[in-house]
Each structure stands twice: as C-alpha cells, then as structure tokens.
C-alpha cells in the first residue's frame, strides 16, 4: 500500500507537445501508485493531451488553466522574464486541496513536460514527511545544482545562480507532502515572483531549510535532468501545404 505520488505537469500546445507527453507518459507508466495531473495551458484541454492520456495506461486527471494574458510571454520579450506553468501548477494544487484532502500520505511532485526523469527518482520521493530534495542535472549554469548535506541535514546548496534565494532549488528538485499543502491553504506559487524565486515562493510558506529531507544518497545522485527540447525547424511545411500535403499525422 504505497503512498500515492501526484505528478503535476503543466503543458501547452506546440509542435513537440506530443513527443514530450509521450516520453513523459511512458516514464510515468513505470512507476506504481502514481496519479498524473496534466494541466493544459489553454481554456480547454487539447486533443494531443487527451489522446496521449487515453493511451497512457496511467491514472490521470486532465485539467486546463489558461495563463492570463497579462502574465503571458510577449513577442520580442526575453523568454525568461515570465515564469511559465505557474497558473497551471496552482490550479493542480487547488484541485488536490478540493479532491484529495483526505489523502494524508500522498506526495506531490511538479514535473515539467520536457525534463528527463529516472524511474528511481520516484522511489526517493515516495515517503516524504514535509519536503524531500535532491540534485537536478544540467541547470543553473552547472552540470548539476543541489543541496549539500552534512550529518543527514541540508546545510548549504551547490548553486551559482542567485545563491541568496531562500530555497535555491529547481522545480524538479523537490517533492511536497500533500498534507502540508492542506494545512497551509494559502500556499501557492506566486505568479509575480521574481525570476528564479518561484520555487522559493511556495516553499517559504511551507517549510524552513532545516525541514528539508535529503534523498538520493544524501543528494549525491542525479536522477532528474533539466533537459530542454530544441525548437523544431519546420520551414518546409509551407511548401508541403502548397502541394496539398498539409499536416495530418
Ligand atoms: N508551459 C506552459 N505554458 C507556456 C510555456 C510553458 O504551461 O506558455 C509549461 C511547459 O510545458 C513546462 C513548464 O511550463 O511543463 C515549464 O516551461 P519550460 O519547460 O518552457 O521552462 P524552462 O525549461 O525554461 O524552465
Ligand atoms: Mn523545461
């Protein structure tokens, strides 16, 4: 009788969405007692998300939450100005509070759709009293960023980017006990958080640094990587459309 892991994934329509969701769904399929909360950044869930989930063999819930236009990326603006996936993650947390408040042993993990996850990672987070933490590969201008552990306690962080952050952790670096989100009903990701402080905006209202539970061999193993997918080049699609071979598959 394993505690359930609720995996929260923001996602949005783009040419590579089906590839990302297929890969992630097939990783998650290898993990027992897992419930996937996929949150589409749109007014209603898209066809791609619906189809991938239907084929996935997973227990899932498909939600949708459109990022309000004032928080959206604007053309010409650098991509990092606005945090992505914030409203979607918060919508999932709201859903969990409403639908799963009774699930006192469950754990919540915020898994972006483009990262790379080892199946072992989920064993590490399964039993989380408050917030469990581990390193993340290929992030923050480093080969890996993560907590530094002494005598079983997180005492510092290997980080180079804004090291003074309250919790210098990537979104993929922690899991939260659902009961913490229940007993702190105001806690959420702050859509107005400064760049890099999104994770801290949630964690600061839930725990202090001393509460962090190091996993993955005292944070010496990398089991998740902040990989990013290259934008596909589709310059020949127009020509195909002109020739009557427009997209279908
Ligand atoms: N995302 C979203 N809406 C957007 C852009 C991104 O819901 O307009 C999702 C995306 O699918 C991913 C998460 O938010 O699951 C983080 O986005 P991304 O991977 O682009 O961020 P980065 O890798 O730059 O941290
Ligand atoms: Mn990403």
Automatic annotation (TrEMBL):
Subcellular location: Golgi apparatus membrane; Membrane
Site (Interaction with galactose moiety of substrate glycoprotein): 145
Residues linked to a glycan: 218
Name assigned to this protein: Galactosylgalactosylxylosylprotein 3-beta-glucuronosyltransferase
Taxonomic lineage from the root: Eukaryota, Metazoa, Chordata, Craniata, Vertebrata
Residues where UDP-alpha-D-glucuronate binds: 10-12, 41, 84, 89, 112-114, 226-228
Pathway noted in the entry: Protein modification; protein glycosylation
Keyword Chloroplast: no
Active-site residue list: 199
Topology in the lipid bilayer: Single-pass type II membrane protein
UniProt family annotation: Belongs to the glycosyltransferase 43 family.
Residue sites binding Mn(2+) per the record: 114
Domain of life assignment: Eukaryota
Protein source organism: Eptatretus burgeri
A single cellular component GO annotation: Golgi membrane
Class in the EC hierarchy, top level: transferase
Positions of the UniProt region annotated as Disordered: 233-249
First and last residues shown, out of full length: 66 to 314 of 318
Enzyme Commission (EC) number: 2.4.1.135
Reactions catalysed according to its record: 3-O-(beta-D-galactosyl-(1->3)-beta-D-galactosyl-(1->4)-beta-D-xylosyl)-L-seryl-[protein] + UDP-alpha-D-glucuronate = 3-O-(beta-D-GlcA-(1->3)-beta-D-Gal-(1->3)-beta-D-Gal-(1->4)-beta-D-Xyl)-L-seryl-[protein] + UDP + H(+)
Cofactor field: Mn(2+)
């Amino acid at each position: 009788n394993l505690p359930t892991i609720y995996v929260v994934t923001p996602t949005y329509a783009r040419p590579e969405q089906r590839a990302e969701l297929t890969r992630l769904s097939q990783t998650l399929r290898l993990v027992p007692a897992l419930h996937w909360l996929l949150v589409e950044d749109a007014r209603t869930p898209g066809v791609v998300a619906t189809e991938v989930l239907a084929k996935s063999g997973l227990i899932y819930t498909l939600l949708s939450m459109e990022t309000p236009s004032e928080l959206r990326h604007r053309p010409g603006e650098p991509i990092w100005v606005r945090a992505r996936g914030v409203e979607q993650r918060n919508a999932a947390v709201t859903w969990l509070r409403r639908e799963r408040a009774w699930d006192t042993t469950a754990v919540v993990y915020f898994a972006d759709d483009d990262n790379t996850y080892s199946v072992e990672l989920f064993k590490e987070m399964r039993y989380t009293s408050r917030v469990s933490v581990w390193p993340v590969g290929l992030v923050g201008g480093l080969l890996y960023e993560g907590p530094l552990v002494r005598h079983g306690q997180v005492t510092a962080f290997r980080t180079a980017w804004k090291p003074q952050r309250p919790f210098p952790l990537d979104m993929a670096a922690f899991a939260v006990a659902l009961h913490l989100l229940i007993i702190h009903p105001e806690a959420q990701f702050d859509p107005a958080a400064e760049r890099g402080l999104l994770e801290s905006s949630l964690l600061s209202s839930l725990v202090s640094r001393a509460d962090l539970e190091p996993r993955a061999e005292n944070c010496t193993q990398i089991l998740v990587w902040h990989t990013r997918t290259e934008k596909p080049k589709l310059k020949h699609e127009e020509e195909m459309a002109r020739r009557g071979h427009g997209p279908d598959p």
